[in-house]
Amino acid sequence: MQRIGRAIPTLQQIRQAAQGQLNQTPCLWQLQIGEALLKADKDVVCITATGDGKTLTFWLPLLFSEDGIVLVVTPLNQLGKQTEAQLGTSGVSCIAVESKTATPEKFKAIRSLEHRVVVANPELLMKDDGSFEALLRDPKFNSKLLAVVIDEAHCVSEWGGFRDEYRYIGRLRHLLPSSVPFYAASATMPPEILADVKKSLNLRTSNTFLMHRSNDRPNIHLVSRPFKYGQHTYSDLDFLVKDWKPGDASPPKFLIFFDSIKESEDAANHLRSLLPKEYQDKIKWFHAVMTPEFRDIEVGRFREADSWGYCATDSFGMGMDLSDILLIIQWKASTSYLKIWQRIGRAARDQSLEGTAIIFSETQYSDEKRAQKEATQQKRAETLKRKAEVASRSTGGAETANGQIEPTVRMDVEARRASYAPSVVAKIQKATKGGDRLHPVLDDMINARARGINCIRLPFTLAFENDKIGT
């Protein structure tokens, strides 16, 4: 399926072209992806850490084609605007199309091959009888396509349940020439997610180039911390600005992630109440209900350090080009471990910096609390005769006479990894029937010490198989 008549450049030639035209020097793995895309005989998958440089690989095929086009599918319109601005500084014409700007004039310009990069969200791209369908069927356009890039490809699996169009992107296979490779890139595609993404996108299973690197971020320090105060008070966040007064140094740039819009607003209002009135606008909320104009302005303020931090949902986009955020806080552990790892990855994208990520967890998820609860239930059910023989056991350890948790016998690495498998997790969650439904990866992280796990990174390392692939 390699395109006829196109000589494939060497890795050295790709490096030199990137240096000359993009003013960037690709690493070996980036060059290898560029080479695979230029060969165009395989689909491509890239799994590597946030901030590692996946985006550069998207543009490498453009360096060897005067009129070639790369189509990028992005989950968030804000990322499209960011791409448009970044490529503009390199002299590469890029257009980010969203529903509000999808005018006939813009599609005419795209059809006339005025832009080398076209960025769109899946809803616009897969709209029935939409402008993109006609565009992709047009040989004048599709013959120039060098690749279809699915950025943040884990969203195909993770978001496909509420953004149906993600599930349909694979249909583009039937509209495009077989010589157009699909390229799925993400920091968080463990085996089960990768398999789902491949299936949904109709990637050529036996003919896919896989670049699988560690997604660990060693320059980010992980901290697991149980809530000390009532969650509704947000007092666990007071350390960020408590006792701050004019003349003091600003707190480090921070993002606090929530799964609830209401919680993001309530937390922001709480933190603002701790500041002098004239400084309260330094902290705001950031979520999908805000207008695009507001979000654009606030990202600019954050970049220039006019704002200190935000109480945000995932609308503060994956892949945002903000390299100096030093503190990430995850509010509650009862969510997807993939989502948490993506959020953590917003910290210290400049690899020369060191960041911190704090994960606040609900107290009911600690083995000690579970043991105490189980012991109470057992004592109520047993007779006075057997009361002295009560042996309280928890899911992660045994309760001692003083109420503390003894470290669990160390689980074999592969046994622990196996406990994270979707089939095992599904059985556990079905058995709990809506109760203690924390994912085992996060459960092990929270209870690492009680379970004899030396490092709270280990559960993530095993789930993403970083120990198998090195760097």
Automatic annotation (TrEMBL):
Keywords: ATP-binding, DNA-binding, Isomerase, Nucleotide-binding
Enzyme Commission code(s) on record: 5.6.2.4
Swiss-Prot/TrEMBL GO biological process terms: double-strand break repair via homologous recombination
InterPro entries in the record: DEAD/DEAH_box_helicase_dom (IPR011545), Helicase_ATP-bd (IPR014001), Helicase_C-like (IPR001650), P-loop_NTPase (IPR027417)
Domain Helicase C-terminal: 236-391
GO CC terms in record: chromosome; cytoplasm
PROSITE patterns for this protein: HELICASE_ATP_BIND_1, HELICASE_CTER
Bias (Polar residues): 392-401
Protein name: DNA 3'-5' helicase
Species this protein is from: Jaapia argillacea MUCL 33604
